[in-house]
Write the structure tokens for this entry.
Amino acid sequence: MHDHDFFELLWVQNGQVRHHLPNGVTTLHEGDTVFMRPKDKHGLQGRGEHALVVSICFHPQTIKALAKRHPNVKGHLFWSETGPVQKHRDIRQLAALNHAAVALERSLNDTLAAEAFLLPLCADLIAETFPANLPNWLSQACLAARDPEIFRNGSAGLVAHAGKAHPHVSRMMRKYLGQTPSDYINAIRMEHAARALTTDSEPVSEIAADCGIPNMSHFHKLFRATHGVTPLQYRQKFQRDIVQPA
């Protein structure tokens, strides 16, 4: 067990890792991500020969400066008042996190590079944070709904994972989140579509199908309502084309 004089972000890249904390031991799996504050005591113990952890350390002033400029981070992640915060990244999110970590490693390791790494990650994770009084079964279903295998099935996928009757799930989501199951799932689908449009080269029809929306008219309607432009306009505006030197 040890503590630090810096903030530490760590995640399990492969295998399983025992995470020792003053109040007990948990097992971290691939994609589990932990935000540690200075003076938070912990220890890591790999399980098996393939366990791999990535760890990044941040200067306290960098973290404090972010909280001053972005008050919404208070109470979350590094800025939590209740000790280490554990989150999870799915396989796509983990790939994006690793890509960002490589860019950070190759950077000047200055404040600008640190913030360029932290802000997108923190914004995504805080957006996934649910009300404290949200029933556990519903929060677990909402988190699971970010898996393509679930959101491709629409609201039915979320409801099936919740294990409750559709009307009950709908009432609880309206009460705690102000959204219907369909609204929640479609928001995830449009986020997935936007990311694919700027990182992949597949036809829009294939991206729509991958979201679980084979009806192109419906897909375009949802995408425009969410992002204000058509999928093609979004791709043209945000996709980074690789230009070969003459």
